[in-house]
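hey m, so remember when u said the tokens were messed up on ur end? i reran from scratch. heres the input so u can diff it against urs
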Amino acid sequence: MVIVVKVYNEVTCVYFGLGKVFGMHKKSFSKTGVKSIGGYDINAEKAAEKKSLAEKAGEEFKVFKSIEDAIDAKPTFYDVAVSTNSHYDVVDKILTRNPYASIILEKPICNLDQIDLLNKHKRHFPQIVVNEVYRSSEISKKVAEILNNHGLIPKEIICEQSKHRGNDFAQGRFIDTSLFVWGYEVPHMLSLISGIDKQYLPGIVTESVINDASVKMPNGNTEVFGKQGSGYVRYKSKEGIEVILSTSMDGQVTFPKPQLSNEKIREYLFDLDPSDPRQILSKADIPQEHISQDDPETRYRMFSFNCKDSTEVVGLCEPIRGIERFIGMVAVLKNNRIIGLEGPIDDRTMEQHLKSAVEYLTGKSKKNPGDAETSIDLVKILHEIVSNAEKPFSSKKQEAL
């Protein structure tokens, strides 16, 4: 058997899709020494604008006239951040023209009706990394470490990612008419949970409910946006663990953590050395009830592992009011009292994930941080949640609280 080892004197990238995501990815790749050769976008005007900006910054950046020309550049890897509808078409063209291509693909991997088509390239799946950034979260790694080191056995997992998108809705932005309220945050939650352990993904979805969003418009009137307000999902994991996912785009915090209020955190930190890095967490202002429509920056991104011995391990992801944008923390509670606090934890999930993706695709790491098989499972799960949704919220939600 002949083993071929690739040696890269220079790591290069060609981009498909030159929108907002392109700019963020290009900046992240530059920090790891990746050279951006150029890119292709179906919008020629947008592509010309990106080339002009690169030239003004003194950078070389080629705009390819066709998708075939971009593929023929044969970089170390391709970064695909086009619309989800076009994911399969672009991946298919790349792998047909360059079967040895390595690809970083924006999430979700594809639409539900494209899964069978994508599976025709299954032998190429090891060459694809899906940009499921929360699978590389440092917060989730710390939670997993605490669970493993202390032999804690979860009996219930709660994950919530909520904010107020009222102003966006009022401007016609971020309105998902296909996946509704679940389209924005639930993929992140499923990625985060699968990043800790795939055994926590759904076995059976037992409840899926949805609510509308009432938004104050610029003219002072209130408008209702159907199925865009709140989503609540309950399922049994493959190992029989109860899991609850909750998301709100109208600012309602469903699972607050009063045990982690400013006062409680300061109380825990009181006896620690003033120079202890954890003292910065005393500035953390964690939403406890409702995020105002006038506060578009605050998010409530929390996940909690309630264990059989009454220990609770809570991960709080960015951004938390009062501390830097990418800083999070992990708290350990026993009978609702803080007994441990880990942080500040720098959790730049996108940078971490893209760095891991490049290391995998260049042979520096054997672990694919965003394998295609898991990403396909996440698409199926998300659509199962949507197809089984009830409306409005059932009383079962209140019982869970």
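this time it looks ok to me. The longest strand covers residues 222-237. if urs says something different then somethings off w ur setup not the seq
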